[in-house]
Amino acid sequence: MLITPYADTTLYVIRSRFTNKKLLSYSNELIESNKLVNTSYLLNGLMLSRLYGYNYNYGYNNNLKKLGTQKY
């Protein structure tokens, strides 16, 4: 909070399944009371396989030889 007047933005980095939810409510209180302006959240470590909705994956055929595994 000491450097807030000198900062252009505040960035909260949140790690999925590790960040305590109470910390999010605290940051929201600071935003609502106008103690923090131009605040952004960065969600890190999100497991895409756990999301609902459309999911697209691609891969290679397992029968193809991988580079560097061929014996001479």
Alpha carbon gyration radius = 21 Å
Q: Strand share of the residues?
A: 15-25%
- Uncertain residue ranges: none
Percent of residues in helices comes to 10-25%
Work out the number of β strands.
Answer: 2
- SSE succession: EHE
Record the strand order, biggest sheet: 1-2
Could you please describe the fold and organization of this structure?
- Helix content is 17%, strand content 17%.
- With 72 residues, the chain is an alpha+beta fold.
- It has a domain of 43 residues.
- A two-stranded parallel ribbon has the order 1-2.
- Strand 1, helix 1 and strand 2 form a beta-alpha-beta unit.
- 0% of the residues are buried.
- The model has no long low-confidence stretch (mean pLDDT 75).
Structure in a nutshell:
The protein has 72 residues and is of the alpha+beta class. The protein has one helix spanning 21-32; strands at residues 10-15, 39-44.
Strand-helix topology:
Layout: E1 10-15, H1 21-32, E2 39-44
Parallel strand pairs: 1-2
Keywords:
72 residues, alpha+beta, 17% helix, elongated
